[in-house]
Design a protein that fits this description.
Length: about 300
């Protein structure tokens, strides 16, 4: 079970949900908690996988496609290749050499499994097995969410002392998103969490340029708020802000809208996370979308200018 060292300066936003029998969970309650920005800890539930095998799988830090391995895309490409190339590996390698870049599959085979096809095949079986459980779990917990895009990232390279942040993306994403995390290692994954997005907006939005706050997209505001509240990467872990300290045990599963709760990986080697784009209108309460959360704090700025 997860171990949490709570900080009294912060809200206790952790919620434990018994998932030992998925047919008995109340999806609406889970959805409400998730959209409200709680960190949902699943008790009595573990992903089934070959822990001994997976504990010896190490991905490199580069390229990015291996650091954050897009397992869903990988499985799709594998299926595609099987359909078009069958066993004609010669044709397949000719096509890729014509493109002068190794396929994702070849990168994994060579850089992760050093050309050992037996281990590589077994790894693919494990990816299929684990991903299907994750998809089933997401469907059971969020049956009403309309998934526009599915992404399951296997992050199997070592991470040390990220900076604290709420998630932001290169572009503002109008969709809601569903984020589920699994610790796939044999040691705990250490996370810190701090202020919620609402608290960051409440306490620090007035420190940003009012004209920027009025005009910028929600994502840009969150981007600048991250720096305002937690500083730059060089300050990682030493930003002076309070934090809950959390140890997620091997096999543990948790959910959190990472755009709404600030978080920091302190240490971890093997984890999986989903980033499913969800149609906003299928949310239990679309007003909980982070665009709306940011916008709720903007009128104050506008009123000041009138
Ligand atoms: Fe993050």
């Amino acid at each position: 079970m997860v171990t949490i060292f709570r900080n009294k300066a912060l809200d206790d936003y952790f919620i434990e949900v018994d998932c030992s029998d998925l047919s008995r969970v109340a999806p609406e309650d889970i959805c409400r908690h998730y959209e409200a920005g709680k960190v949902i800890l699943l008790s009595g539930f573990k992903i089934d996988y070959d822990q001994e095998f997976i504990a010896n799988v190490n991905f490199p830090d580069t390229p990015k496609s291996l650091k954050k391995f897009p397992s869903h895309k990988f499985l799709e490409l594998e299926a595609h290749e099987r359909r078009y190339f069958g066993l004609k590996s010669l044709v397949r390698s000719t096509v890729y050499s014509a493109r002068r870049q190794p396929s994702l599959s070849d990168q994994v085979l060579q850089q992760v499994f050093q050309g050992n096809r037996q281990r590589f095949r077994y790894f693919k079986d494990q990816v299929r097995h684990v991903n299907s459980q994750i998809l089933h779990l997401c469907q059971a917990l969020f049956p009403n969410y309309q998934r526009i895009h599915e992404s399951i990232t296997w992050r199997f390279s070592e991470t040390r002392n990220e900076n604290m942040h709420v998630d932001i993306y290169t572009e503002d994403l109008p969709e809601h998103h569903l984020r589920l995390f699994v610790n796939m290692d044999i040691i705990p994954r250490l996370w810190n969490t701090s202020w919620t997005l609402e608290q960051m907006l409440q306490g620090h939005l007035d420190k940003l340029d009012p004209a920027f706050v009025q005009q910028a997209t929600s994502g840009r505001i969150c981007h600048d708020l991250n720096f305002q509240v937690f500083g730059r990467m060089r300050d990682a872990g030493r930003d002076g802000q309070p934090r809950h300290i959390t140890f997620f045990e091997p096999g543990e599963v948790w959910l959190v809208d990472s755009r709404k709760v600030s978080h920091q990986i302190v240490y971890g080697r093997r984890a999986i996370s989903t980033d499913f784009a969800i149609a906003r209108q299928s949310m239990l309460d679309p007003n909980q979308h982070y665009y709306n959360v940011v916008d709720r704090f903007r009128p104050v700025q506008q009123a000041l200018e009138l």
